Amino acid sequence: MSKNLSRREIITRAVYAVGGAATFASVQACGSSAATTTTPSTGPTPKDFPYEQHLPAGYQLDPAAVKEPAYHAYYEADGGCCHGSYSALMKHLAATAGAPFDQLPADFGRFGAGGIAGYGSICGSILGGVLVINQIVSNPAARGAMMTDLLRWYEGASFPSYTPATVDAAEAQKPPTLDFSAGNLVNLQTTPGSHLCHASVSGWCAARGVAANSPDKLARCSRLTADVAAKVAEMINTYLASTATPKTYTAAALDSTSATCLGCHPKTSTTRPVASGMSCAPCHADKVPPNVHP
Amino acid sequence: MSKNLSRREIITRAVYAVGGAATFASVQACGSSAATTTTPSTGPTPKDFPYEQHLPAGYQLDPAAVKEPAYHAYYEADGGCCHGSYSALMKHLAATAGAPFDQLPADFGRFGAGGIAGYGSICGSILGGVLVINQIVSNPAARGAMMTDLLRWYEGASFPSYTPATVDAAEAQKPPTLDFSAGNLVNLQTTPGSHLCHASVSGWCAARGVAANSPDKLARCSRLTADVAAKVAEMINTYLASTATPKTYTAAALDSTSATCLGCHPKTSTTRPVASGMSCAPCHADKVPPNVHP
């Protein structure tokens, strides 16, 4: 699926240079004064979707390089978690792979903060990652597996784990009360259990004894955003490195407790069907072992 | 914020036509054979985000016109609810407002089916709508209010309510067992309560006694997709009709039961903070009246 963009780019640029020169020369020679700014239409455009086809053979992102930008973008005005992961990944793609990533607005993820406009739905850092995966992956089955894998990984991961190279100016102005130093970070970690911002943020804040609008919450979620952005980069790299045709990706299996639930509540049930790929326990603790099923 | 695109378009097209003709004439006259395809760079591009600035003054979508395409797009291979609402709205915008909507892939929403890759997260038809609102609205406060309003509306609306003009070929091939005729549709309606696909689909299917992977589920969700797409068009119209500077939008208030919950569980609490804009009852029935609070 991948094409060699270096080659393609060279050709595109050469055609453009020749074409531009020819047009300029002819306009000069013929004395026409019509002034139109033109751009080549031979390169990839946002409509040539998905964008895996425009990546050079062997292309890989640098997961370490997206962490710090993701962390700082979180603290921008009208920023947040979705903007953090989305903009860091898209800017990295634009800088390292060019078109059409550099023709898209890196600001597209600002809406997703706090589980979409503070609603507490899907964690914005995941949503930003999902949107970037969707830009690239051409195989629908692999795309679905990657998104499922990202959601499951998030639910079971310990956050936060990134320590920024430089504390953001906004964080320094209103510093957290907890100790976010690299050595102590492990003591601040919890596993969200759910991919919903509402549960992830409320649970962490309650466990740490801090408010959900505190500087501590911001310090936690900005670092989590860096963690998620790097994970998305790693996942895309795994997919791009697939040698299968089309490229494949395998998601982690559903946890065993939830798998047991679906044994009696499959999609095919006409009495209690369950349409879900997520873990059951976080929202239905009363219905999973060791509790009694009602 | 809005510019008159008709005027702008006329100018752009005129410049392009003149430029194109001049280049062609000069190339012909001077005998150059360099063949470059050029596109005008004077019109709006996807990077000129958000796109409200490119809409003609007084622009409005036609909510009725997006319903049928949204319903049919749901049934496409690798289609679904998010693709249904997103592609119907984006194609309508491309056809009626032009650039940059016509420079973006209408296929971007295919990932969102079944609450993102079947995971049961946010209903894809809402997510598709959220992504379209995000393309347009430039005022972050209004953008957030619109997304909140869409999510709250969905949770309390009765679905499905649209009756397609033509039954989709895929639906006709595997028809639902329930009576989806216009006269009987009211008897098939339920209120999702939650904006999550998992709860919305599982709840409706259980209430109707059908499987979550049945033709009945498809018939329900395809019509719901049309309902949501039209609602999003109406909301964007309300926003665009705002005469305030910047344009404003007011979301419906949180339901009174949930508002009571947040009285004791505000974001500012350091013991049980709740970060959420959604309704509490659907997931915490054991904690809201008339049940006893644990």
**Rounded average pLDDT of chain A:** 87
What is the H/E string of chain A? HEHHHHHHHH
Largest interface: A-B, 84 and 83 residues
Which oligomeric form is depicted? homodimer
Number of strands of chain A: 1
Fraction of residues in helix of chain A: 40-55%
* Beta-strand content estimate of chain A: under 5%
Poorly predicted runs of chain A are 1-40
Task: Calculate the terminal CA-CA distance of chain A, rounded to whole Å.
Answer: 51 Å
What does this structure look like?
The structure is a homodimer of 294-residue chains. The first copy, chain A, has helices spanning 5-30, 63-74, 81-97, 124-136, 140-156, 169-173, 197-208, 215-240, 256-264, and one strand at residues 38-40. With 294 residues, chain A is an all-alpha fold. The termini of chain A are far apart. Chains A and B meet through helix 1, strand 1, helix 4, helix 5 and helix 7 of A and helix 1, strand 1, helix 4, helix 5 and helix 7 of B.
Would you spell out the secondary-structure blueprint of this structure?
The structure is a homodimer of 294-residue chains.
Chain A: H1 5-30, E1 38-40, H2 63-74, H3 81-97, H4 124-136, H5 140-156, H6 169-173, H7 197-208, H8 215-240, H9 256-264
Helix pairs in contact in A: 2-3, 2-8, 3-4, 3-8, 4-5, 4-8, 5-8
